[in-house]
Design a protein that fits this description.
Layout (H helix, E strand, L loop, with lengths): L1 H21 L2 H7 L35 E5 H7 L5 H5 L38 E5 L2 E2 L19 E7 L4 H4 L6 E7 L5 E11 L6 E12 L4 E12 L17 E4 L14 E4 L2 E3 L7 E7 L8 E3 L5 E3 L5 E3 L13 E3 L17 E16 L2 E17 L5 E7 L14 H11 L3 E8 L8 E21 L2 E21 L1 E2 L1 H8 L1 E3 L13 E3 L27 H7 E2 L2 E22 L2 E19 L7 E2 L5 E2 L12 E17 L2 E12 L3 E15 L2 E12 L3 H5 L3 E8 L13 E8 L8 E12 L7 E17 L3 H9 L3 H4 L2 E3 L10 E5 L3 E22 L2 E18 L23 E10 L3 E10 L2 E2 L4 E3 L14 E3 L3 E2 L2 E14 L2 E10 L27 E10 L1
Parallel strand pairs: 2-5, 36-40, 46-47
Antiparallel strand pairs: 1-4, 2-3, 4-5, 6-7, 6-51, 7-8, 8-17, 9-10, 11-16, 12-20, 13-14, 15-16, 17-18, 18-21, 19-20, 21-22, 22-27, 23-26, 24-25, 27-28, 28-31, 29-30, 31-32, 32-33, 33-34, 34-37, 35-36, 37-38, 38-41, 39-40, 41-42, 42-43, 43-44, 44-49, 45-48, 49-50, 50-51
Length: about 1000
């Protein structure tokens, strides 16, 4: 019934869209151009092709770097949603991309709700996203480009280069380039509207767009405009209808395992009907102190503060008894395993509202010379449930609760809930809660992204051959408000939790026996807060709204990212050899990246005298930071035909950073077609990624702990055995560009005996050295002890806390260039188009990637570099196989496409050893641990897309319906509490219906 209602809802909405759209032809006839190409993509200029991955323009050039082209028809036939990013992310090469469904926990970095591409699982910052071959301003402090800012109604095709391209485009093109190419010569008007919903009746969405283009002045000028609006309902909880997250499938540490002993007892065991037992929605007593230790452990507070006994069932980890001194168990099997209900209070999809406009004007001022200007503005508002306000280790003082009158040392809410008889001999209780009475923490980000480009391009005659030039300047700006909602203020929460009965003669005149904040009724008046309202956290439905308002706040910071770019590109054919024309492209670019931010004082952490900070809020604690860098670049690229089907392609780029110095990138490539049926290709390149603004200039957050002195000797001459330290997590302005050495080797087959068939296979290897990552304070100490100056520069003596006998350190935990990343694999691509009659064809397409190796080597002693390929457990996992295939039947008026996509089965943990007998010896610190079941299943989803085109006059309307996850398959499950699925590769929402209409008006 739910599925039927959802489907009817989609059809009703799409019918409304259709009625509105079909009522427009009269208006369209009076305003649309009369050219025969109206509302169609203009064909590419004959004899000249410019493809992503190279700056060379020449007849029929095929680059040695692998290139995947996604046409507008591909997108319309098989896109799973109304967002082009969801289609692009189905490519196997774009593994691990950030998308709304898996960005739910990004509370403090501003990336929640965006669509940012990640190629080869090397990170969003190592793939370059372009719009018509030019950069776009980042939408986050990491410089990630949000695909939502692309004018999707105008996208003609998407070109994906799966190989290093820094020599052509500069920094960030380490794993590849994704270039969104617009239809800049559109004639006519295109209107599209659609709506969708899940099979459970939630996750409703709609989108609408309009795009139009018209030539004027006899074809010398052209104007292009588009606008879009998109809405997505949020799914803020995983209800029981999505039963996959309520099975209690959990990995737990085996209490029968013995450290250092070879035995059949594995370290980890996987179980069903298991849930978290370390907290409950209304609070769980995890320990109590007094004459009888832990006498109250295992009591939990339910509706209205009712006291219940938690049933720890048939299994717990760790094994314990209620009154023992051992830690309270984190999970339990059977019994009260569902009380915590951690699988429900998790968001699956943010509420997302966005709109954007784009405009472009071009004019041919003279033969072969065109001036152009374009601009875009996009606004997004995204709201996401980021989970409950979890608190552990809340201590309630119960000293004196059994005496009369009750002293202020007795927590009033504890006495009220537990009663004096239970508290006899109990001096304190410790409670952990998921805070059902407090609203979810939430992310409420707003982004405004604008981009403006002006330039000129043209053709000219050089050396008797046609040449091409362009020059442009652009400005981009992102205004980002990173807003958190319902965040606990640490001090106010402590004040409100510590409640007491107002004693006789209290200074503020409270009614004797009323419950007040302890700070306002104790003997001291210097710690009073007249705004404090006591908060009852012991139970469900017991908290006062005024108290909730007092303890929660909405921290935010405003960030402005700016990008200035100017560049020029020139392509010529200066001479020819006996084998053919030699092509050359030269150019340069200057660019500046800036960031500045502001944070209201009340939302900043407290800055201490020694420069460290104390966090005022449970999350957030923003500090404003500013910074900028500039870069100057110049490149040269050439293509030289060598005869016998062999072509050489080479490029070099000189780059000079204001902060990181000079670096050179280059590419050597070749293609060889010994016969028309097969072409071999190879590329060797050196590519870079420059540190982003956050890595360079992050203002800092605080922590404190102790570190071991790596130079300690028993005579004490080299200092104490341990140092206390204040930690400051900051950016590092001395970072260097990361350097990647890459190989691509492959072949393309297009057999003449099988017209319409093409297949390719390409081996890739990316070896990234000096990758930027954060490092622990202890490892900074260790590397300084080895004499590495850049690490020693991060350590100073704390002038405030140090004494002659007890030195105290100030350690800046900065990012450093210290990681090596290696990714290897093979890409496969095939397509076969079969005509089946006049105007009809059947097309089969398939792409797949077999990952061979993906490892990170930190070089840290004791840390093992592990190949994570085939480990499907984590969100950043890399399955062995990622694949996608489609079959399309298409006639002049009808199209049907069925798509299959998925990943191969694999392991839960890359370091896991599955065994049932004779398990190897392990300890709690072993890198490789033993499991009774280390397997994770694969995924296979089926999507269906149907469309019917209806002509009306000289125009046409296309009605379409899309069903994603046709058989409502479950996500890829992993044995964990909370969200028990891999959200990176899984369809988290279940079956989805989408229907809409596309109208083309001449």
């Amino acid at each position: 019934m739910i599925e039927a209602r959802a489907f009817k809802k989609v059809l009703a909405s799409s019918s409304a869209f259709a009625a509105i759209a079909l009522a427009m032809p009269a208006w369209a006839q009076t305003t649309a151009p009369t050219t025969p190409e109206a509302a169609q993509t203009a064909p590419a200029a004959e004899g000249e092709i410019l493809v992503t991955g190279t700056r060379i323009r020449r007849d029929g050039f095929q680059a040695p770097t692998p290139l995947t082209v996604l046409t507008q028809q591909d997108i319309q036939n098989t896109s799973p949603t109304n967002n082009i990013a969801d289609f692009v992310n189905q490519l196997p090469q774009l593994a691990g991309s950030t998308k709304p469904a898996n960005s739910r926990l990004n509370l403090s970095n501003g990336s929640a709700g965006i669509n940012a591409l990640n190629m080869r699982n090397l990170g969003e910052g190592r793939v370059l996203v372009l719009l018509d071959g030019r950069r776009s301003v980042g939408s986050t402090i990491y410089g990630w480009v949000d695909i939502n800012t692309i004018p999707q109604a105008l996208v003609d095709r998407v070109e994906v280069v799966t190989g290093g391209a820094s020599s052509a485009y500069g920094s960030d093109a380490v794993s590849g380039v994704v270039n969104f190419i617009l239809n800049k010569k559109l004639e006519g008007l295109k209107i599209e509207a659609d709506t969708g919903v899940t099979t459970y009746g939630d996750g409703g969405n709609y989108s609408g767009s309009i795009a139009g283009g018209k030539s004027f002045a006899g074809g010398r000028g052209h104007i292009l405009l588009s606008a879009n609006v998109d809405h997505q309902d949020g799914i803020f909880e995983v209800g029981r209808e999505r039963e996959w997250n309520h099975t209690g499938y959990v990995r737990a540490e085996n209490p029968a395992w013995v450290s250092g002993v070879s035995t059949f007892n594995r370290y980890f065991t996987t179980l069903r009907n298991v849930g978290a037992s370390n907290s409950t929605p209304g609070g769980l007593i995890t320990g109590s102190a007094g004459t009888t230790a832990n006498a109250l452990r295992g009591l939990y507070f339910g509706q209205g503060g009712a006291v219940n006994t938690f049933d720890y069932g048939s299994f717990t980890f760790p094994a314990f008894t209620r009154a023992s001194g051992s830690s309270a168990p984190s999970v339990t099997q059977n019994g009260s395993w569902q009380v915590n209900d951690s699988g429900r209070r998790i968001g699956l999809m943010p509420k997302d509202d966005r709109w954007g406009v784009f405009g472009r004007l071009s004019f041919e001022v003279a033969d072969g010379i065109e001036l152009f200007a374009e601009g875009s503005y996009n606004k997004q508002k995204v709201f996401f449930n980021a989970g409950p306000n979890l608190s552990t280790g809340i201590t309630y003082n119960t000293t004196g609760c059994t005496t009369v009158p009750v002293p202020v040392t007795c927590n009033a809410f504890a006495l009220q809930a537990l009663g004096a008889s239970r508290l006899a001999g109990v001096t304190s209780v410790t409670v952990a809660t998921t805070a059902a009475d407090l609203p979810f923490r939430a992310i409420d980000n707003e982004r405004k992204v604008q981009r403006y480009v002006v330039g000129a391009n043209g053709d000219f005659d050089a050396f008797g051959k046609p040449g091409h030039w362009e020059i442009y300047a652009q400005y981009g700006r992102s205004d980002v408000r990173e807003q958190l909602r319902n965040v606990m203020h640490n001090t106010r929460m402590a004040n409100a939790t510590a409640a007491a009965f107002a004693p006789t003669g209290n200074a503020r005149g409270y009614t004797v026996g009323s419950i007040q904040c302890l700070i306002n009724v104790d003997a001291s008046t210097t710690n009073d807060d007249p705004n404090c309202v006591p908060l009852n956290r012991l139970g469900v439905g017991v908290a006062d709204q005024a108290a909730i308002n007092y303890v929660l706040g909405n921290p935010y910071r405003d960030q402005v990212l700016e990008q200035y770019v100017a560049g020029t590109n020139w392509s010529v054919t200066p001479f020819a050899t006996w084998a053919g024309d030699v092509s050359v492209s030269v150019g340069g670019e200057v660019r500046k990246e800036k960031i500045r931010g502001t944070v209201p004082k009340e939302y900043q952490p407290v800055i201490n005298a020694n420069g460290t900070t104390t966090n005022a809020w449970s999350v957030g604690n923003y500090l404003p930071f500013t910074g900028e860098y500039s870069v100057k670049e110049a490149y040269l690229e050439t293509v030289v035909p060598l005869g016998l089907g062999l072509e050489f392609n080479g490029a070099v780029r000189a780059t000079d950073y204001s902060n990181a110095g000079y670096v050179t990138t280059w590419k050597l490539g070749a293609t060889w077609a010994p016969i028309p049926d097969i072409r071999f290709r190879v590329t060797r390149s050196r590519d870079i990624r420059a540190p982003n603004l956050n890595e360079l200039y992050q203002a800092g957050t605080a922590n404190s702990d102790s570190v071991r002195n790596p130079k300690y000797t028993s005579d004490g001459l080299n200092g104490p055995q341990t140092f206390g330290y204040s930690g400051l997590v900051t950016g590092n302005p001395n970072l260097r560009p990361e350097i990647a050495n890459s190989w691509n080797i492959g072949a393309v087959v297009s057999p003449r005996f099988l017209p319409g068939f093409t297949a390719s296979a390409d081996y890739f290897r990316i070896d990234l050295e000096g990758a930027i990552d954060s490092i622990s304070a202890q490892e900074i100490m260790n590397r300084c002890a080895e004499g590495i100056a850049e690490y020693c520069a991060a350590i100073t003596d704390d002038p405030v806390r140090s004494t002659p006998t007890a030195p105290y350190k100030l350690i800046r935990s900065q990012p450093f260039n210290f990681v090596r990343k290696l990714v290897r694999g093979i890409d496969f691509d095939a397509a076969y188009r079969i005509p089946v009659g006049a105007g009809s064809a059947f097309t089969i397409k398939g792409v797949a990637t077999r990952y061979i190796e993906n490892l990170s080597d930190t070089g840290i002693v004791g840390q093992v570099a592990v190949n994570t390929v085939g480990a499907n457990g984590g969100q950043a996992s890399t399955p062995k196989w990622i694949f996608r295939g489609s079959a399309t039947y298409e006639s002049e008026t009808f199209s049907a496409t069925i798509t299959g996509r998925g990943v191969s089965a694999g392991k839960y943990s890359a370091t896991g050893i599955e065994c049932t007998t004779s398990c190897p010896v392990t300890t709690t610190t072993s890198t490789f641990q033993t499991y009774d079941n280390n397997r994770v299943s694969g995924l296979f989803y089926v999507d269906l897309n149907l469309s019917q085109t209806v002509p009306f006059g000289d125009n046409k309307a296309q009605f379409f319906i899309n069903v994603t996850n046709l058989f409502n398959r479950w996500p890829l499950l992993v044995p964990e509490t909370g969200l028990a699925a891999n959200s990176t590769y899984s369809d988290m929402l279940g079956r989805q219906f989408r229907a809409g209409i596309r109208i083309s008006l001449k």
